[in-house]
Amino acid sequence: MKAMNRRKLISVSAVLAVASLAATAVPAHAAEVGVRSSEIKLGMTLPMTGSASLGYNKIPGAAKAYFDYLNANGGVNGRKITLIVKDDRYVPTEAVAKTNELILKDKVMALLAPLGTANVKAVASSVNPAKRGVPVLFVNTGFSGFADTKKYPTHYSILPSYQMEAKIMGKYIAENLADKKIGLLYQDDDFGSDALAGFKTAGTTFAVKVPYASGSQSSATAAGWITKFKAAEVDVVILFGVTSASLYMLATAAALKYAPQWMIDSVGGDSTTLKLAGVPAGVLYNAIGFSPVPATTDLTDEYIKLFSEIYAKAVPGSAFDLNVLLGMNSAFMTAQALKAAGLNPTRKSLMAVLNTNGASLFNSALSPVGYSGTSHVGLTGEWVGKYSPTGDLLPIGGTYTTYITDSGAGAVVKSTYKRPAMPAKGLPN
Amino acid sequence: MKITSVKSRAIALLSTTALLATIVVAAPAHAAATGPTCDGKAPVQTCTGTTSDGALYEMRVPATYSGTAMIWSHGLGTNAAVPAGLLPIFPSGVPIDPRANVAPGNSADLANYILAKGVAVMGSGFSVQAWNLDEAVKTNAELVGIFKSKFPTTKKIVAWGYSMGGGITQAFAEQHPELISAAAVINPVDGPNAMLKLLGDTLWLFKTFFDPTIKAGNYTAGKAGDMEMVADIGKVLTVLASLQASMSTGAWPATSSATGKALETAGVPSRSALLLIGLLTGQSTQSKTFDNISGPEGALKLSFPLAVSPALGVLENTATALSYGLFLARDIDQKFGGLVFDNTKTDYSAMLSESDRVVYNAALSGNTVINALLGALNPANPGAPRQVGNPAAMAKYAALYNITGKIKVPTVMMIGLHDPVEPAGIVQRIQDLYVDQYAAEKAAALNAAKKSRAYVKPTNKLNVVWSVSPASWTKFTAAGLPYAVGNTPGTGHTNFTPANYLLMIDTALKAAETGKLPSGGAWATSVRKAGGLKIDALTSYPYMKYYNQ
């Protein structure tokens, strides 16, 4: 090994410094994985096929629709966004394999909107995006743990946590259904644990709690759940699970003519998906639901109006629903963060933007985002609604009353948040 | 750990226990070394002899000898012979085999590849089998001395070995860096404590749930004890067959403990209990047949990989791990005079990682079932009595050499991601330790440079390659039954191709010659061409449970 003397060290350092300066001055020569002079590559894994894909498989099409719109309007500082989508079928091992492909073969700059607590955790522990410095933007799960910047420094939550949602449900119950017997159906994993923690904080008590193992939902298991709720003579049944759990429960309940007051969580309560899968609108009618974003039928909302127009052109014939809106919303926030990350965005500069200014990114939600240097909490609240006779979730009384809270012991309060006006044409400014 | 006598040696067992006992008696621990006696043949002469501890050795030296020699350390052998016909998995029996090995599986092709380079090969059969790390390091050191005396032009020695021999090679390099110039460490065992935890926990959990009559240690002395161990292997295989047959129904084996039967009554599927054993012990859920991704066409397309395949993967891997493990348990009993595994203070609940609890939640049947299973393993449950070790035996065991992971000579390592006997975390830990070691060496070099005004960058001394599996590999018959296709890289025990071994040989020899390991594009190209291997410094494979990570 030849020794390098100090003079050589100095000259090498000087060359590197000059090269570094040159790189920042010339956008066309970006040197970050997934960033080229004309393109930024992002990757997404989520269930596109199989029973767990119900509704969620519209998210990539929605995000692409927004990115195509953005690209047609100049992209991000002249770079087009390319979204590479891989089907993980909601199987953790497959999510690991597909994410490895995205990072190692496709060489994406960042991961966008991966779905499912188990899948995101599997990827976090096996692929280790944190160690690789790969941003994981706007994860599609309400598990509160992903907001922990120590454990998941490159993950950014977007959905209100399941704890928050359970606390908001608990407040609604305390104020409106205090004399009713409540039953709870929940997924028997971190999803459900988060919910149970929220209900405990809210002081909600249950006549019966029915857990189901993820993947076990079917018409037969739903019939078993109903037997338990009937035996406990509950007035209200809370469905705190994924869409397929809500689907089997509501469809089976309709067949068995079981009709309690339903209360449905946001991730399992998209009415378009449920109706397309066979749940009669009449079964949904008057069910209580929750959402962090405006009603998808509310064309008076500037985001809903613009996004639904973009989506209709990109994916003709496909209904504009909650999954679509959330997908487009994440794409819009991504575009803004990339633009703010500089002429030559890097993974580090992208995350720096989210850590310092992420909370001020424009988006359609009716509650604020909680990003900071020490927290990657996403949206912090939801409004309460009821399903209409046609099965659409609408705000109670016709106006949005949004409740905000945290994933801890904080109170649930009415939000005073006033959403800023959408930037012109829904493009990053 | 590879039982070389089973998989690698073609000569059938000629003798029974009596003859083998004779061999042991005829090889006292401190006999004088014999040989080397050389046949003087060309182009390769073969020399044989015994080291002072009675280990048979062999050297093959080409006429074109360059001054470099490779010393091979073979995998796990047994000190307890199993006659033919007793176990279906070992139809030819398992002999005590003291013969020398000079290459993986004593492969003539690999040995000849090395000899053609003008490099000599050597190796011994070791004086004792099973857990022989301490004895084997001494034997190797002595053998190197004998070789150098016989062939005084020798300049470089490269140590290599796999499985138990991989651990021996690493320990040899740690203790005698002055004797070797480079090392190739292939799916090594970890130190005795980490391996004991893997083995002991697996056996205890298995018997606690599925068959409390499995002895898993405390065997009777002598041949009768060997047969008790054989009976244990038979029981384990019977339970595994029962579990496999009831994968879909979740029924528990008829031999299950009262605890197991109570769990069955509570609706806990046996497949979830089996999977939990794998997750608690750090066993891979992916195996030769099962990838946890594929499912048969139809209704099970999604539920099979989510809910069933992980348990089947553990089942397949556990069959391999326990077959080896029981031989080791028998040996440890004999060698140390009693049980050395003690789990009286083990908190099994803490051994299920947060990640595994979530990722495998469906296959574990949800948190309620997980909590029921972990509750059954609580020390307060009289139906799950803990194993109390023998203090004297434990003290003797504690004196064994523990692999430190310190890298003192240029070393190339290779391991399969889903090896059922040596988890990938063994190499992960060493790789992580080396990151710290290199940082310390760099800091020291920078400090030295302050005085000398010349910075000398430390030389990298560790290259790691991982044998990785493709995206998916399970296939299904038209009837929906899963089957394995070929030897999928990264699965099974010591499942490497000849090209993989050649990479190890070439890399270690080059490092011995130049003092440097290959790097950059040239190294990446070599790894890619070897097939099924990956360089990956950014993925963290879980450490063995002993290290609580």
Summarize the structure.
The complex is a heterodimer of chains A (429) and B (549). Chain A has 429 residues and is α/β, with parallel strands linked by helices.
Textual characterization of the structure:
- The complex is a heterodimer of chains A (429) and B (549).
- Chain A is α/β, with parallel strands linked by helices and 429 residues long.
- Chain A is 39% helix and 17% strand.
- In chain A, a hairpin with a 5-residue loop joins β14 and β15.
- The relative contact order of chain A is 0.13.
- Chain B folds into two domains: 4-191 and 401-547, Rossmann fold (3-Layer(aba) Sandwich), CATH 3.40.50.1820; 194-397, no CATH class.
- Chain B contains 17 helices and 13 strands.
- In chain B, strands 1-2-3-5-4-6-7-8-10-13 form a ten-stranded mixed beta sheet, with helices on both faces. A two-stranded antiparallel ribbon of chain B has the order 11-12.
- Give the strand order of the largest sheet of chain B, numbering strands 1, 2, ... along the chain: 1-2-3-5-4-6-7-8-10-13
**Which sheet architecture does the biggest sheet of chain A show?**
9 strands, mixed
Order of helices and strands of chain B: HHEEEEHEHEHEHHHHHHHHHEHEEEEHHE
Strand proportion of chain B, as a percent range, falls in 5-15%
Average residue-wise pLDDT of chain B:
91
Which bin fits the share of residues in helices of chain A? 25-40%
Helix segment count of chain B? 17
